[in-house]
């Protein structure tokens, strides 16, 4: 067997994003579920996302959690020892899906920042 | 004084006549201090000579008699029937390996993986005149590393060896780390290359099944974690600064 | 293939101990949380797709007694996945694999406390602002 930097980085980043998510989800839950009360409305969210810090935080959280979720699901398939060609296709498929999902979420976030749909 | 009987419920399979494995029950008179292996031998000698299982040393040394006994992987020769606290003893062969007959599994793929990690000392320099010395501390690094009897219990307990046939598995990676930890060994780079692939340490999800299963109370999970750290140490440096 | 995909559940009876249950729980919660994430992103994007009022309407509809229970379950899933993940990372990176059994007890205790306190606050907030 050859050492595989791809497998190593995938595994390592899953742990790194895991640790970052512990911090990120702590803030996310604390602010959105325990501090802010009442019905969430479009205005409440736009008020929060007026701040560049919150936008930055949410974009980071989005990117990190998408990596963690997509790599996690891909990992379950990788564990099944698929044919190399199938595995490669899946790697690309999941990678592209993750990137698309990130941009979809990114645009959704910006809607709250600019108060109108950006596209 | 054989008044108490225990039922041995054993998974049988003969590739020449059976399509699927099935369970067969045998009643064995219990003797004080009887082990599961002794029970199996009793069945073979007095009830059904066709039953097949592996054993050799009867003392927990050779690693031949690893099997799934009443919900856990154990060595048949080191398991007292009385300690199982059950009148029925259910025995299955090691999982994730091809059953050749009854409780005997095909270990050839296991040994192939074993050989692939070079399970021997590679000092990389000519032999010294007397011996290769180790300090007390260096020797202590190997405590708990050299006691593996290659029984395969951890290998069978690991979920990943079942889903990924090519995964080296805890028993093999444990051996690889035993040499990676040895101060007299100078082939760390090679060992990392041999174990750091997609079917190597990165397939391990730290489930701890192997640690729980080990009848010798060793820590394959810890050994794999050690290999992972060594692999990351080297791998990240190569990724960031090129060849080192 | 199906057998392999669900091996983490199928093999529980053969390896029946806490460690295996932690692993199965980690996988299952991971899959469910990933699916929730996709739904979550979609719900947030209603503002982009149909405007701010649609978003507010969806949020209002989600302020529902049944959903608050599901939300607390979700919170429990997040906390469990997180704490078990921390246990795995501590074992791998800090050579604490031999302490993993005690770590299970510790994370179970922390998880219980966090989920009961958090769940209580969520229920309280809900009851205060549900009209
Ligand atoms: S810790 Fe790793 S090797 Fe051990 S049972 Fe789990 S996945 Fe298998
Ligand atoms: S580590 Fe333990 S369970 Fe695994 S092969 Fe060695 S002795 Fe057997
Ligand atoms: S017969 Fe040798 S270990 Fe059991």
Which helices and strands occur, and which strands form pairs?
The complex is a heterotrimer of chains A (119), B (244) and C (131).
Chain A: H1 5-35, H2 42-48, H3 52-78, H4 84-114
Helix pairs in contact in A: 1-3, 2-4, 3-4
Chain B: E1 5-12, E2 22-29, H1 36-47, E3 66-69, E4 72-75, H2 81-84, E5 88-92, E6 99-101, E7 104-105, H3 108-116, H4 136-140, H5 153-157, H6 159-163, H7 170-180, H8 188-195, H9 209-213, H10 220-241
Parallel strand pairs in B: 1-5
Antiparallel strand pairs in B: 1-2, 3-4, 3-5, 6-7
Helix pairs in contact in B: 7-8, 7-10, 8-10
Chain C: H1 2-5, H2 7-10, H3 18-44, H4 46-50, H5 52-61, H6 65-93, H7 100-129
Helix pairs in contact in C: 3-6, 6-7
The structure holds iron/sulfur cluster (2 copies) and FE2/S2 (inorganic) cluster.
FE2/S2 (inorganic) cluster binds at residues 55-58, 60-65, 75, 77 of chain B.
How does this model look, in words?
The complex is a heterotrimer of chains A (119), B (244) and C (131). Chain A has 119 residues and is an all-alpha fold. Helix content of chain A is 81%, strand content 0%. The termini of chain A are far apart. Chain B is α+β, with helices and mostly antiparallel strands and 244 residues long. Chain B folds into two domains: 5-105, Ubiquitin-like (UB roll); 108-243, Orthogonal Bundle (Fumarate Reductase Iron-sulfur Protein, Chain B, domain 2), CATH 1.10.1060.10. Helices cover 35% and strands 14% of the residues of chain B. Chain B has ten helices and seven strands. Chain B has a five-stranded mixed sheet with strand order 2-1-5-3-4. A two-stranded antiparallel sheet of chain B has the order 6-7. In chain B, β6 (99-101) and β7 (104-105) form a beta hairpin. In chain B, α7 runs antiparallel to α8 and α8 (188-195) packs across α10. The longest helix of chain B is centred in the C-terminal third of the chain and has 22 residues, at 220-241. Chains in contact: A-B, A-C, B-C. The complex binds iron/sulfur cluster (SF4) (2 copies) and FE2/S2 (inorganic) cluster (FES). One iron/sulfur cluster binds at residues 148-154, 171, 174, 213-214, 216, 218, 220 of chain B.
